[in-house]
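ZP: hey, is the flavin-adenine dinucleotide complex queued? I don't see it on the tracker
AM: it wasn't, my bad. submitting now with these inputs:
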Amino acid sequence: MTRRYSAFNLFREGLRGHTGWQPAWRSPDPKPAYDAVIIGGGGHGLATAYYLAKNHGMRNVAVIEKGWLGGGNTGRNTTTIRSNYFYPESVALYDFALKLYEGLGRELNYNIMFSQRGVVTVAHSEAEMEIAARIVNAMQINGTDAELLGPDAVFDKAPLLNRGPKARYPVFGGVWQGRAGVARHDAVAWGYARAADGFGVDIVQNCEVTGFIVENGRCAGVETSRGSIRAGAVGLAVAGHSGVLAAKAGFALPIQSYSLQAMVSEPVKPCLDTVVLYLGTGTYLFQSDKGEIVVGGGLDRVPSYAQRGNPPMQRTVLSGMLEMFPSFGQLKMLRQWAGNVDVVPDSSPIIGPSPLPGLFLNCGWGTGGFKSIPAGGWLMAHLIATGSHHEISRPFDLDRFATGRLVDEAAGSGIAH
Ligand SMILES: Cc1cc2nc3c(=O)[nH]c(=O)nc-3n(C[C@H](O)[C@H](O)[C@H](O)COP(=O)(O)OP(=O)(O)OC[C@H]3O[C@@H](n4cnc5c(N)ncnc54)[C@H](O)[C@@H]3O)c2cc1C
């Protein structure tokens, strides 16, 4: 049976009618006990399991997913990957992820279609240009790539942008990060799943965690729709449902869950080869490798677990798109969907021990956790395997809400995906 993907194996399997491929991952029944159980089969949970096995030699590990792999936000997001944040702590985190993404396809032996086509965040006034310059300086000081663009350079990157005299949001320039880009979201989940399975990790789908086993004040496992599973350590990586599971574990998190929606157009000929975000409209978009225009915007604002989104926000996002690219008024929109994102007051993630010993947190990524999947998994694996923080995750501990050492990226960089 063939497991490794290569041009030679593809050719050989082609001659055999593709009958010899091994399944990408097994579907085992859950065992009664593991050294570690990770709740949530999204990118962060799967990456955690992979790095537990690869970096720390922990193979007796399970990922428990209530639906199907990547069926949460990992498979619903708009796939933008960048590290253009303001604070050193954030750049260290997201640039670590970006560096891991740069070698991930080769490492996982899975084509994640990482395309470093760059991201331009467009400024619309002198005041916004000053903020843009401040962010570029901060990014450069923090050791990541950043460039301040004037208006002509922005139009060079995206020639179809609205440059008419009646533009409501005139283009003054922007922040450019050339190493940023997009990847194939399903492939990131599937690549991690396949590689983790290769190390012996059990990936259990259609199994919902319904509660926690607590003994002597410590988390000793999980209750699931398929029975109890004991564990030496439990990791929580359930994104928009972190608050729900934290309540089952007996504590509250400073998290609100919101719907975040996106949409794609029909595929059209190549016309946009970068990712563009307008600060004025909050709309961002890029062209997928299939030719579709992928469009996203802000949160739905009413806390909710809906995965459909709502028309007022769609109207806002689409009017933003038409302001940016008037010629896209001809496009037919094909699909629209939403995911549940977990938003924290300072718009930075929570990685660290939870108030229940033995249970570790990876949550609060809000609208921006796809870009951080490799780092989130790496850091959570470090936490579970060693019981202590990696230096990159320390500032993102839950204790920052007690000490006041917030990493307020909403104020610092005006984060949007
Ligand atoms: C429309 C949209 C656009 C976005 N755009 C971007 C972007 O451009 N760039 C970016 O970086 N980020 C973006 N994001 C955010 C990003 O998708 C998320 O932050 C990220 O995917 C979170 O990954 P995760 O693995 O933590 O969660 P998820 O992928 O949501 O995985 C969590 C899993 O936990 C499972 N689960 C929940 N409860 C239980 C339970 N009780 N038992 C077992 N399993 C459970 C769920 O079924 C789910 O599969 C976007 C999100 C959305 C919705």
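AM: back. The chain has a mean pLDDT of 96.
ZP: great, adding it to the tracker
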